[in-house]
Amino acid sequence: MIHSGHPVSPHGPNAETPRKAPTPVQDLAAAIRKDLARLRERGPVIGCFPLYPPEELLHSLGLAPLVLWGLSPLVSGYAEADRHLQAFTCSVGRRLVQFVLSEGRDLLSGLLFYNACDTLRNLPEILDQGLSGRGGKLPRFRLHLPLGSGGPAHHGGYLKQEILRLCGELSDAFARPFDQEKFDLSTDLYARARDLGRELEQEAAAGRMGFAEFCETLSRAVFLAVEGRILFFEETLARVSGRQKRTGPRVMISGILPPPPAACRAMDAAGLVPASNDIAVFHRSYASTPAVRGDLAGYYLEFYSNHEPCPTLLPTADRRVERLLDRARAAGVQGLIFCGEKFCEYEYFEWPHLERRAREEGFSTLFLEFSAEGDETTGAATTRVQAFAELLESGG
After folding, report:
1. What does the pLDDT look like over 152-205, one tens digit per residue?
2. What does the domain layout of the chain look like in residue ranges?
């Protein structure tokens, strides 16, 4: 270090305090914050929840959709969230509230949400209350998905009216008229991004990409504009496609969120190969894209009616377990690892039935529970992952 033109001993009183190298989580958080700054430059950012909002519509209007999911790299505490939520709220809800209340006014120009579980259903009013003393509420836009018998497919007229109403409200609020041609171009971009997501999943299944690297890549992509997401995926695929394949016990990993980074690294260290994933923010989000063109409402009728089954889309839940087991068989997995988010009642209600059916089909199963504290709770999970890998290696 140079001070007043004279060299100073690095051990002297004016020496810089040595800084620890950033951890992988810190590196990811720094990258995501740069991505968010670029996203804000694209246009008004609309925070969306739950997982499957009409992103193509927002994009076609020149808005920047941001799905408020997988926020753990950006949230280091819950002081604001805990003022408004009960202690038994899931990590998704706590992180979402913490992020919006602490950073939402600087980043977001509005919130868009649709009906899901009890926690997320009530968050808009909670966020209004929390933001009222921080510069005012954010504009809110709501899409109501029909959840009665048969779901969207049996309530097509109602859902189409909801989509058209939402489109009109967004167009009026931001003075951006809807253009069908622009919407079709947006759907093409999102279709390409989903195709690339599936290709990355295939590289991980082939053993050319560790599960920790796969999860970090897909987690960061949530915070990119779709154009940047496509480029990021293409660059990642070019980097990993020539790698040598790893072999090991093949597993399917399921959950509303991916496991914390430490648990992902434990799976890699144990030699497990993620032959398939059923993680909501990953596979369930990019599994398919509607082929409809030239019809805004028709596109989203197909999108929600034929979506990959997920408990957050209640009408799809009846076909979810058999769909998951079909995919596990097709991928040739030996075991199924379910990563449960503490207090996520929808997935927890499903797990006992899923576990019973998986064992009937000859799959070994492992249940791991994680909470809002993330990596701080992964010590026991690491030990259980190692034991599970040894079980699979032995043919158990």
Report:
1. 777 889 999 999 999 999 999 999 999 999 999 999 999 999 999 999 999 999
2. 24-31+38-176
215: left (phi over 0), alpha (psi -120 to 50) or beta: alpha
Tell me yes or no: is domain 24-31+38-176 CATH 3.30.470.20: no
Residue 368 DSSP code: E
C-alpha gyration radius of the chain: 22
Sign of torsion over alpha carbons 29, 111, 281, 283: negative
pLDDT at residue 350 greater than cutoff 50? yes
Write the pLDDT tens digit of every residue in 245-302.
Answer: 999 999 999 999 999 999 999 999 999 999 999 999 999 999 999 999 999 999 999 9
Q: How far apart are CA 109 and CA 174, in angstroms?
A: 10
Helices 320-331, 345-360: crossing angle, 10 deg rounding:
50
The helix, strand and coil proportions of the chain, stated in percent and rounded to the nearest 5, come to: 55, 15, 35
